[in-house]
């Protein structure tokens, strides 16, 4: 093994197929679908949907190994390696939108420092459309052939970044961390945040996050949507049909009295979501993937944060004005840093404030999903830091009016 190289932290599945094949995820743009290339073998991340749901049941597929760890450049050599005019394949550890936006921002900076490098990503999954915003990048959405793998000079395993294993429970800023790890200066940003809004301009509201800890309360969403529409803006409320709580959440928000409000249950692909955010003049959104997507285009607006810190998640990006929950209670105060709900040893699911327990008694992520609980938390009984957003709604709406000049 070459110096400064070692086996990747993530394990991959090596498989072969007797028949030609192609795969693509349903919520990824069709032009990113992959096809076989007559290679004797292919690699996919062991935890990928391709491995878990398709390969094991495909009669023409033979699983060769589930314990492949490709040879990757060691973390301590990233900053000291000259990648210019090299072919570099980045192994993507997860496809959470916010994490991948941070990776994309880093890759833009990487390409600026090494303009001769040829960049590719492997196992970008449902976030493939996010990576497609980078010019001249090669995207291996679900797998790579052994033949193509051999063409790369370096493989970089992003899962070697410090703190990545905790990202589901304690947010980090991937752009900042990766730029520092590679010794790459981040790309310059616009010097001013200056939303210039006029009647008829487009405003998007995106209130849903993957966790009840971060989804906005329906009452606040309803009043915010009405306020913006009544001010004459072309107002669109975007929900997420891929989340099981969407219908109950939508019903709780209720109908609107103002006619120029469009409600969209969700987009078919992440690419559609990216295009929507690119087209908006202003956004109001929860701490969620779309909030991170605004960084790609510096879309102005307001980001509303509950359990997670706006300072950590927005980093150096000031296109969103942060509104942070001000909750303080006996067992926690916002932002506590949690990204997802936790579970007690007896199986109770919640957070410190909702269960009235110290963090020391909430050491695990829930093993099973509980749709009924999730619905209650996003509609009837939000966790305290989210409920505080309703208690402070008049202050928030005044803050919003001031920012957009109405």
TrEMBL record:
Origin: domain of life: Bacteria
UniProt xrefs under Pfam families: Glyco_transf_9 (PF01075)
Protein name per Swiss-Prot or TrEMBL: Heptosyltransferase
InterPro entries from the UniProt entry: Glyco_trans_9, LPS_LOS_Heptosyltrfase
Matching Gene3D superfamilies: Glycogen Phosphorylase B
Keywords: Glycosyltransferase, Transferase
């Amino acid at each position: 093994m070459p110096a400064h190289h070692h086996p990747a932290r993530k394990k991959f599945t090596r498989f072969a197929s007797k028949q030609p094949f192609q795969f693509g995820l349903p919520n990824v743009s069709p032009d990113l679908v992959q096809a076989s290339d007559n290679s004797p073998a292919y690699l996919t991340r062991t935890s990928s949907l391709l491995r878990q749901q398709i390969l094991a049941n495909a009669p023409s597929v033979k699983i060769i190994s589930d314990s492949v760890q490709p040879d990757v450049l060691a973390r301590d050599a990233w900053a000291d390696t000259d990648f210019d005019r090299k072919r570099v394949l980045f192994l993507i550890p997860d496809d959470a939108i916010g994490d991948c936006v941070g990776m994309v921002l880093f890759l833009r900076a990487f390409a600026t420092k090494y303009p001769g490098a040829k960049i590719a990503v492997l196992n970008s999954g449902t976030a493939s459309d996010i990576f497609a915003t980078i010019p001249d990048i090669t995207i291996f959405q679900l797998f790579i052939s052994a033949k193509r793998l051999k063409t790369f000079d370096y493989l970089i395993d992003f899962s070697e970044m410090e703190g990545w294993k905790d990202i589901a429970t304690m947010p980090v800023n991937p752009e900042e961390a990766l730029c520092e790890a590679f010794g790459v200066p981040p790309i310059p940003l616009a010097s001013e945040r200056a939303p210039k809004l006029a009647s008829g301009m487009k405003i998007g509201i995106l209130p849903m996050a993957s966790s009840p800890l971060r989804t906005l309360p329906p009452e606040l969403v309803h009043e915010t949507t009405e306020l913006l529409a009544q001010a004459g803006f072309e107002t669109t409320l975007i929900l997420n049909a891929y989340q099981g709580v969407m219908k109950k959440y939508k019903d709780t928000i209720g109908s609107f009295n103002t006619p120029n409000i469009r409600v969209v249950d969700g987009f078919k692909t992440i690419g559609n979501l990216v295009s929507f955010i690119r087209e908006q003049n202003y956004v109001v959104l929860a701490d969620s993937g779309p909030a991170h997507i605004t960084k790609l285009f510096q879309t102005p607006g307001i980001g509303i944060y509950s359990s997670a810190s706006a300072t950590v998640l927005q980093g150096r990006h000031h296109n969103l004005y942060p509104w942070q929950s001000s909750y303080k209670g006996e067992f926690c105060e916002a932002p506590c840093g949690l990204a997802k709900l936790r579970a007690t040893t007896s199986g109770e699911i919640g957070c410190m404030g909702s269960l009235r327990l110290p963090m020391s008694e909430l050491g695990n992520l829930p093993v099973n999903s509980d749709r009924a609980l999730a619905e209650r938390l996003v509609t009837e009984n939000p966790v305290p830091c989210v409920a505080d957003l309703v208690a402070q709604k008049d202050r928030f709406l005044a803050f919003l009016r001031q920012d957009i000049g109405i």
